Amino acid sequence: MSLRPHSRALATVALALTVAITGLQPTAAAPPRHTASPNDAHAHGHDRISTSHGYDDVLDLRGSPTAALPGDAKDINPVNVFSDQGAWHAYALPASHAPGGYGGFTGPLYVAQEYPWWLSSSFTRIRLSEHGRTLDLAGGGEPHFTSRPGALVQAYDLGDGLRLTLDLRYATHRTALVRAVVRNTGRIPRTFGADWSGRLLRPAEAPMRQAPSLAVASRGVAVDFAKVRAADDFLTDGTERFEVRHADPVRTTVTGDSYRTELAAPFTLAPGTERSLAWTESYTFTQAERRTEADGVRRVLTAPERTVQAVEIRWRRYVSGVTAGVPAGRRRLAVKALETLVTNWRSAAGSLAHDGITPSLSYKWFAGGFWAWDTWKQAAGTARFDTELAESQIRSVLDHQIRPGSTTRPQDAGMIPDAVFYNDPRRGGTNWNERNSKPPLGAWSVWQVYRRSRNKEFLREAYPKLAAYEAWWYRNRDHDHNGLAEYGATVAPANGSAEQQRQAAAWESGMDNAPRFDAASGTTVVPNRDGSGKVTGYSLNQESVDLNAYLAADQQYLGLIAGELGERADATAWRAKAAATTKLVRRRMYDPATGWFYDTALATGTRLTGRGRGIEGAIPLWTGVATRAQAGALRERILDPAEFATPVPLPSVSRSSPYFAPRQYWRGPVWLDQACFVLAGLRRYGFGRDADALTERLIGNVAGLPGRAPLMENYEPLTGAPLNSPNFSWSAALLLPLIAHH
Description:
Strand order of the largest sheet: 6-7-8-9-19-15-12-11
Largest sheet: 8 strands, antiparallel
Distance between the termini: 29 Å
Structural class: alpha+beta
Shape: elongated
Radius of gyration: 27 Å
Oligomer: single chain
Strand content: 15-25%
Number of strands: 32
Helix content: 25-40%
């Protein structure tokens, strides 16, 4: 993340290395994604969702916006939302005790290419009438709102034997299906009219204020968006549309920012019967998408029950995948992680050629793009319930790897950019980031997915790209060619000064503002040059321990991949390279006096112990780089309450460090990915009981983790208080292996 708001023997060896490096035993392979047949599921009552199994409301998804621009002063949306299938629009449940939102789902929240906005507080609210009288949705008492795996559900008792239920699921990557079922449980026939209404939450400021406009559409209503290119705020091309289409004939009128759609004819319910009203809500970016989606919408509305059953089958599989091997008391947490990942799933759009997962739909600057480091970790977690989606995520960043012969940056062939978004630089993308890359966890991630999918074609596809990425690190980030690499920066307009280059290099680590990168401590950059003397990039004046430990693991996994593909010579070479890197890290970067691993000064090799101990010094445990003796010393520091055994254990900076700041991003808060790595590393070296105890403390002391609060980007190590972005994907992804082990 950036601070910018912006043959059997082979199999046996592979398994042993996987367990050693991840610290995790394998579980049964998750089945591939498929299109479900409605015959695969039994019929269920309309308001009884078969995927529930005690997983109702694992997240609090209630709330209603009052303005189009979501977020507080920190650009965080306080309303948690639900999305599925990679859609670029999302919904919530109405706020409790808020009759103004009854009869509809909160939203939608839509992503204007890269930025989330509320279209409405509740765009499609149903109203029932009888004999010209509007029925009170709260007439029989307070309604019941529930979020369930794959669905949002509302149930109303209208009194006098009348019930209304609403449910929302995603039919496709662009369309939500909503159903309203009216039941007459009374003793006499009753005749009803139905209508729907909504009002835009228009953005307050120009030019986005002029973007949305209501229009009558076939069997419903639409919102068209004018072209607005407001960098860092609102981006549309004038082809986007949100459209509601009803299964039944309707009449629609539009008045300014409001509309009303009325069922063309009333319906009569005999005692003990029900009537279902179905409609779709689609958000598309282009006319081509809209034409394709129109055919799908017609099929969905012809037989909506088929879609419902298919969604239930898929979500039962998802839930089964993430809860396999998880103790009963932690399964709701696993489903919370699942729902977080699925809501952050965005399908291919714009410059994004494959589906991927964003860090968080709740934070403005994370909503419309994919980050490389996040993706490596997210894919490893996603593979537990959907290997095809896991593979797609990896492709989503490999798509943008710099190719040989690049006309803009040929010196960076093999590099994988830090972040890619809907808009690339040619379209004015200000969030797209090629100033730096991110830590090399790609081969690890690919192997985690492969061990569940067994898709060898995916290995063949990824292997040469991962090998090229590895080569780039040593060609462009090993300043003195001694086999130890440095984080650094690319030759790019945004890296025009030494300070900009230092900042990009810190971003490349993923630990942006960690104390070890402080300019005040002497951190700066040096230029790297090719044989002709041309500058090809920049390196920090320090060799980083986590980077080189990651590279050692990357080389081990590349050896596994090469071996699986029958590339024996490559496999041998990768193993040799991993052994050499491991030896260098052990010898150069471990300090016996303090029992920890540190970055080293580029010019002298001096260990930079004065900058304090950071969590990066424990990465050699996870990757197997540490010797047994070194691992024992690391264990002592990890278990020391004055070091890393804080109330919420494993802070990003040791409590004893003069730079420890428990609420300042990478200067103290606990990040669940790093905690997961360290705990797996402890188990690798035989310290399983210690890891178990720390895990119990971590899960028990993080505020909101067992409850309905969202999973956060990081947490305060002394109190467990939530910090920074909610509904954070890599926290969710790496919680899955963490809790499945116990």
